[in-house]
Specification:
Structural class: alpha/beta
Order of helices and strands: EEEHEHEHHHEHHHHHHHH
Helix content: 40-55%
Number of helices: 13
Number of strands: 6
Radius of gyration: 18 Å
CATH topology: Protein-Tyrosine Phosphatase, Chain A
Strand content: 5-15%
Protein backbone atom coordinates (compact mmCIF):
# COMPACT_ATOMS: atom_id res chain seq x y z
CA UNK A 1 0.00 0.00 0.00
CA UNK A 2 1.23 3.49 -0.87
CA UNK A 3 -0.77 5.64 1.54
CA UNK A 4 1.33 6.84 4.47
CA UNK A 5 -0.34 6.74 7.89
CA UNK A 6 0.85 9.66 10.02
CA UNK A 7 0.87 9.33 13.79
CA UNK A 8 -0.86 12.10 15.74
CA UNK A 9 -1.79 11.78 19.41
CA UNK A 10 -4.98 13.84 19.14
CA UNK A 11 -6.16 13.24 15.57
CA UNK A 12 -7.33 9.89 14.24
CA UNK A 13 -6.79 8.31 10.84
CA UNK A 14 -4.37 10.88 9.41
CA UNK A 15 -2.54 9.98 6.25
CA UNK A 16 -0.90 11.32 3.14
CA UNK A 17 -2.90 9.74 0.35
CA UNK A 18 -0.55 10.70 -2.48
CA UNK A 19 2.24 8.64 -3.99
CA UNK A 20 0.24 6.42 -6.33
CA UNK A 21 1.80 5.43 -9.63
CA UNK A 22 -0.27 6.10 -12.75
CA UNK A 23 -0.58 4.13 -15.98
CA UNK A 24 0.82 7.01 -18.06
CA UNK A 25 4.08 7.06 -16.11
CA UNK A 26 3.16 9.94 -13.82
CA UNK A 27 2.55 9.62 -10.10
CA UNK A 28 0.46 11.49 -7.55
CA UNK A 29 2.60 13.88 -5.56
CA UNK A 30 3.22 13.10 -1.91
CA UNK A 31 3.10 15.83 0.68
CA UNK A 32 0.11 17.58 -0.90
CA UNK A 33 -2.97 15.47 -0.15
CA UNK A 34 -3.85 14.71 3.46
CA UNK A 35 -6.95 13.21 5.04
CA UNK A 36 -8.12 12.33 8.52
CA UNK A 37 -10.59 12.93 11.33
CA UNK A 38 -11.91 16.10 12.96
CA UNK A 39 -9.54 18.56 14.63
CA UNK A 40 -11.25 19.55 17.87
CA UNK A 41 -8.36 18.28 20.00
CA UNK A 42 -5.42 19.23 17.79
CA UNK A 43 -2.58 20.42 20.04
CA UNK A 44 -0.21 23.34 19.50
CA UNK A 45 2.66 21.02 18.49
CA UNK A 46 0.33 19.24 16.07
CA UNK A 47 -0.71 22.56 14.58
CA UNK A 48 2.96 23.36 14.11
CA UNK A 49 3.33 20.02 12.37
CA UNK A 50 0.43 20.87 10.05
CA UNK A 51 2.22 24.11 9.30
CA UNK A 52 5.47 22.26 8.62
CA UNK A 53 3.57 19.99 6.22
CA UNK A 54 2.48 23.14 4.39
CA UNK A 55 -1.24 22.52 4.92
CA UNK A 56 -2.87 25.85 4.11
CA UNK A 57 -6.40 24.67 3.26
CA UNK A 58 -8.63 22.52 5.48
CA UNK A 59 -11.80 21.13 3.90
CA UNK A 60 -14.34 20.37 6.64
CA UNK A 61 -17.12 18.11 5.34
CA UNK A 62 -19.15 18.12 8.56
CA UNK A 63 -22.57 19.66 9.16
CA UNK A 64 -22.88 22.76 11.31
CA UNK A 65 -24.18 20.77 14.31
CA UNK A 66 -20.98 18.72 14.24
CA UNK A 67 -18.81 21.79 13.78
CA UNK A 68 -20.43 23.50 16.77
CA UNK A 69 -20.06 20.51 19.04
CA UNK A 70 -16.47 19.69 18.03
CA UNK A 71 -15.04 22.93 16.67
CA UNK A 72 -11.60 22.80 15.08
CA UNK A 73 -9.13 23.93 17.73
CA UNK A 74 -6.85 26.25 15.77
CA UNK A 75 -4.78 28.82 17.66
CA UNK A 76 -3.57 32.23 16.56
CA UNK A 77 -0.29 30.67 15.41
CA UNK A 78 -1.88 28.37 12.82
CA UNK A 79 -4.76 29.71 10.75
CA UNK A 80 -5.39 27.75 7.56
CA UNK A 81 -8.19 28.70 5.21
CA UNK A 82 -11.24 26.55 5.92
CA UNK A 83 -13.89 25.40 3.47
CA UNK A 84 -17.20 24.37 5.03
CA UNK A 85 -20.64 23.57 3.70
CA UNK A 86 -22.28 26.59 2.10
CA UNK A 87 -25.16 27.74 4.36
CA UNK A 88 -27.51 27.19 1.42
CA UNK A 89 -26.86 23.46 1.69
CA UNK A 90 -26.06 23.12 5.39
CA UNK A 91 -28.49 22.36 8.19
CA UNK A 92 -30.71 24.96 9.78
CA UNK A 93 -29.09 26.54 12.82
CA UNK A 94 -31.96 25.20 14.93
CA UNK A 95 -31.07 21.60 14.04
CA UNK A 96 -29.38 19.72 16.84
CA UNK A 97 -28.40 16.55 15.00
CA UNK A 98 -26.61 15.78 11.76
CA UNK A 99 -28.54 13.37 9.49
CA UNK A 100 -26.42 10.36 10.44
CA UNK A 101 -26.85 11.20 14.11
CA UNK A 102 -30.62 11.43 13.74
CA UNK A 103 -30.60 8.02 12.08
CA UNK A 104 -28.53 6.54 14.90
CA UNK A 105 -30.92 7.80 17.56
CA UNK A 106 -34.19 7.00 15.84
CA UNK A 107 -33.62 4.07 13.50
CA UNK A 108 -30.41 2.16 14.24
CA UNK A 109 -31.43 -1.02 16.03
CA UNK A 110 -29.73 -3.83 14.12
CA UNK A 111 -26.60 -4.39 12.05
CA UNK A 112 -28.87 -4.63 9.01
CA UNK A 113 -30.20 -1.13 9.74
CA UNK A 114 -26.67 0.26 9.94
CA UNK A 115 -25.44 -1.54 6.84
CA UNK A 116 -28.41 -0.36 4.78
CA UNK A 117 -27.96 3.22 5.93
CA UNK A 118 -24.28 3.21 5.03
CA UNK A 119 -24.95 1.86 1.54
CA UNK A 120 -27.61 4.50 1.00
CA UNK A 121 -25.46 7.38 2.24
CA UNK A 122 -22.57 6.43 -0.04
CA UNK A 123 -24.95 6.15 -2.97
CA UNK A 124 -26.51 9.56 -2.33
CA UNK A 125 -23.34 11.48 -1.53
CA UNK A 126 -21.79 12.06 -5.00
CA UNK A 127 -24.90 13.90 -6.20
CA UNK A 128 -25.91 15.58 -2.92
CA UNK A 129 -25.97 19.35 -3.54
CA UNK A 130 -23.92 20.33 -0.49
CA UNK A 131 -21.25 17.71 -1.14
CA UNK A 132 -21.04 18.59 -4.84
CA UNK A 133 -20.66 22.27 -3.99
CA UNK A 134 -17.83 21.87 -1.49
CA UNK A 135 -15.97 19.37 -3.68
CA UNK A 136 -16.30 21.71 -6.66
CA UNK A 137 -15.06 24.72 -4.69
CA UNK A 138 -12.17 22.72 -3.26
CA UNK A 139 -10.96 21.38 -6.59
CA UNK A 140 -11.25 24.76 -8.28
CA UNK A 141 -9.19 26.31 -5.49
CA UNK A 142 -6.63 23.49 -5.70
CA UNK A 143 -6.40 23.95 -9.48
CA UNK A 144 -5.29 27.54 -8.88
CA UNK A 145 -3.08 27.10 -5.81
CA UNK A 146 -1.52 23.63 -5.90
CA UNK A 147 -1.38 23.86 -2.12
CA UNK A 148 -1.32 21.10 0.50
CA UNK A 149 -4.87 20.26 1.62
CA UNK A 150 -6.26 18.39 4.63
CA UNK A 151 -9.79 17.03 4.16
CA UNK A 152 -11.82 15.64 7.03
CA UNK A 153 -15.27 14.86 8.30
CA UNK A 154 -15.84 13.38 11.77
CA UNK A 155 -13.96 10.07 11.64
CA UNK A 156 -12.29 10.70 8.29
CA UNK A 157 -13.62 7.61 6.56
CA UNK A 158 -16.99 8.10 4.81
CA UNK A 159 -17.47 11.63 3.49
CA UNK A 160 -13.70 12.00 3.43
CA UNK A 161 -13.40 8.65 1.66
CA UNK A 162 -15.64 9.73 -1.20
CA UNK A 163 -13.85 13.09 -1.50
CA UNK A 164 -10.44 11.41 -1.62
CA UNK A 165 -11.67 8.90 -4.20
CA UNK A 166 -12.80 11.74 -6.48
CA UNK A 167 -9.44 13.49 -6.12
CA UNK A 168 -7.45 10.36 -6.87
CA UNK A 169 -9.56 9.26 -9.83
CA UNK A 170 -9.35 12.73 -11.36
CA UNK A 171 -5.58 12.43 -11.10
CA UNK A 172 -5.70 9.11 -12.94
CA UNK A 173 -5.42 6.60 -10.09
CA UNK A 174 -6.99 3.24 -10.91
CA UNK A 175 -10.19 2.21 -9.13
CA UNK A 176 -8.35 -0.75 -7.58
CA UNK A 177 -5.79 1.60 -6.04
CA UNK A 178 -8.52 4.03 -4.98
CA UNK A 179 -10.27 1.20 -3.16
CA UNK A 180 -7.03 0.04 -1.56
CA UNK A 181 -6.42 3.56 -0.26
CA UNK A 182 -9.96 3.77 1.10
CA UNK A 183 -9.54 0.48 2.97
CA UNK A 184 -6.34 1.81 4.54
CA UNK A 185 -8.52 3.13 7.37
CA UNK A 186 -8.64 -0.45 8.61
CA UNK A 187 -4.93 -0.19 9.37
CA UNK A 188 -5.19 3.32 10.79
CA UNK A 189 -8.09 2.53 13.15
CA UNK A 190 -8.76 -0.84 14.81
CA UNK A 191 -12.57 -0.83 14.71
CA UNK A 192 -12.89 -4.15 16.53
CA UNK A 193 -10.57 -2.90 19.24
CA UNK A 194 -12.58 0.25 19.94
CA UNK A 195 -16.18 -0.73 19.18
CA UNK A 196 -17.01 -1.41 22.85
CA UNK A 197 -15.71 2.04 23.84
CA UNK A 198 -17.56 3.66 20.94
CA UNK A 199 -20.78 1.94 22.01
CA UNK A 200 -20.49 3.36 25.52
CA UNK A 201 -19.81 6.86 24.18
CA UNK A 202 -22.77 6.63 21.81
CA UNK A 203 -25.02 5.60 24.69
CA UNK A 204 -23.81 8.50 26.82
CA UNK A 205 -24.20 11.03 24.01
CA UNK A 206 -27.60 9.95 22.72
CA UNK A 207 -29.22 8.58 25.86
CA UNK A 208 -30.23 5.20 24.45
CA UNK A 209 -28.90 1.64 24.36
CA UNK A 210 -26.88 0.31 21.43
CA UNK A 211 -25.27 -3.04 20.84
CA UNK A 212 -21.71 -3.23 19.49
CA UNK A 213 -22.91 -5.69 16.85
CA UNK A 214 -25.51 -3.23 15.57
CA UNK A 215 -23.03 -0.35 15.50
CA UNK A 216 -20.17 -2.14 13.80
CA UNK A 217 -21.35 -1.60 10.17
CA UNK A 218 -21.91 2.07 11.04
CA UNK A 219 -18.22 2.51 11.88
CA UNK A 220 -16.76 -0.07 9.50
CA UNK A 221 -14.95 0.49 6.22
CA UNK A 222 -16.34 -1.87 3.59
CA UNK A 223 -15.62 -2.29 -0.11
CA UNK A 224 -19.35 -2.29 -0.83
CA UNK A 225 -19.73 1.18 0.66
CA UNK A 226 -17.30 3.00 -1.62
CA UNK A 227 -18.43 0.92 -4.59
CA UNK A 228 -21.82 2.63 -4.24
CA UNK A 229 -20.21 6.06 -4.62
CA UNK A 230 -17.99 4.94 -7.49
CA UNK A 231 -20.97 3.49 -9.34
CA UNK A 232 -22.81 6.81 -9.14
CA UNK A 233 -19.72 8.82 -10.12
CA UNK A 234 -19.10 6.68 -13.21
CA UNK A 235 -16.65 8.22 -15.67
CA UNK A 236 -14.62 10.67 -13.61
CA UNK A 237 -14.07 13.21 -16.40
CA UNK A 238 -17.80 13.32 -17.12
CA UNK A 239 -18.54 13.67 -13.42
CA UNK A 240 -15.99 16.46 -13.04
CA UNK A 241 -17.36 18.42 -15.99
CA UNK A 242 -21.10 17.81 -15.68
CA UNK A 243 -21.58 17.55 -11.93
CA UNK A 244 -18.66 19.47 -10.41
CA UNK A 245 -18.69 22.04 -13.24
CA UNK A 246 -14.93 21.91 -13.78
CA UNK A 247 -13.65 22.98 -17.17
CA UNK A 248 -10.61 21.77 -19.09
CA UNK A 249 -8.45 24.51 -17.59
CA UNK A 250 -9.38 23.47 -14.04
CA UNK A 251 -8.68 19.80 -14.73
CA UNK A 252 -5.40 20.37 -16.57
CA UNK A 253 -4.10 22.72 -13.89
CA UNK A 254 -5.22 20.40 -11.09
CA UNK A 255 -3.31 17.54 -12.66
CA UNK A 256 -0.26 19.71 -13.26
CA UNK A 257 -0.05 20.64 -9.60
CA UNK A 258 -0.76 17.25 -8.03
CA UNK A 259 1.05 14.87 -10.39
CA UNK A 260 4.71 14.52 -11.24
Amino acid sequence: MVSNILKFDNILNVRDYGGHGLSDGYMVRKGKLFRGAQLSKISRPEQERFGDLGISLVVDLRYQTERRRQASNFSETYRPDIFEFDPEYDQNKSDKLAPHEAFAIRELNTAKDAYGYMLGSYEERPLAAGFVDIVSRSLKRMSKSGEAVYVHCAAGKDRTGTFAAIVLMLLGVSKDDVMEEYLRTRQAVDIDGVIEMITLKMQERYGRKFSPQALRPYFAVETEYLEKSLSVIGDIDDYARKILKLNSSHIDSFRKYYRL
